[in-house]
Amino acid sequence: MRLLVRGITALGLILGLSSAALAQQKTEISITRQPGILYLASHVMETQKLIEKHAAEDGLKGVTVNWRTFSGGGAQTDALLSGNVDVVNTGTGNLLLLWDRTRGKVKGIITSSAQPVILVSRDPRIKSLKDIGPTDKIAVPTVGVSTQAILLQMAAAQMFGEADTKHFDPNTVQLGHPDAMAALANKNHEVASHFSAPPFQYLEIAAGNHVVANSKDIIGGPLTQATFFTTTAFAESNPVLVKALREATVEAIDLIKKNPREALSEYKQISGDKTDLDALVKILEQPDMMEFRTDPQGTMKFATHLHKIGTLKTMPAAWTDYYLPESADLKGN
Fold this sequence. Notes:
Helix content: 40-55%
Oligomer: single chain
Strand order of the largest sheet: 7-6-8-5-9
Distance between the termini: 56 Å
Radius of gyration: 21 Å
Low-confidence stretches: 1-20
Strand content: 15-25%
Number of helices: 14
Order of helices and strands: HEHHEHEHEEEHEHEHEHEHHHHH
Structural class: alpha/beta
Largest sheet: 5 strands, mixed
Number of strands: 10
Mean pLDDT: 91
């Protein structure tokens, strides 16, 4: 009988500790993203409340998720470091820079897409990157550190050698994708080229602009474009939410692949994008546009480049260095 009582007491203590641990976790969180269907999984997660659903299934009920849209990755990372948001969803470059800057106190959770980004131009003279002159302006989401800006550096190193990696940096102008698309539509605007992102790049091409370069050609394969990452302090204090976000991302990607049209309809509902639904469906039919995936792609190539030019002070030994331990099951590179 004494053993039974002790067992019941021990069980009660375990359950009590579990309840206390759950009670200490946040139930209202904020997550950022940028405009465009690179972040389609996040729109599905929002409309179907997938994080809330999985958190409840894992024992944390009453979760509220606030989604916030930023025009560029730099503003998102600033918001994360200042504590104004809990999780950001942006490019690989920003993750690597914050991991390095905070000495490992910011890490990735899971990725949601590895779609190509395309540099387009309205200037008929600019057929390739070799045609970019000193006065030509290229719009990128964040100068110096966005995925697009880093891709330009990698291309410059390939074209002109490592000593001239930042050859195109003076050409870049910081504009969010919607503003950059508007700039291309204005023939009097100084910005005649845009290192774009879906769906903007395909809408710009449909409007008469032409392709100059493709991320897949520069990096030699797929590249993760949308990564959820957070501070290790948040991850350690909120393991159920981190788990729920991972599970929600997997489910969202599965829903996108099963019914892309419905997913795009949800994207339009949340984003306010006025693009015709049929046109968006056709965009997802373009090469490599269904690369919604949870495993990091091409990230170590980014890290190698950033370390080589001195932007990244610490060279990671593997991609798992800048992702949470819970993410080690992903088949990344």
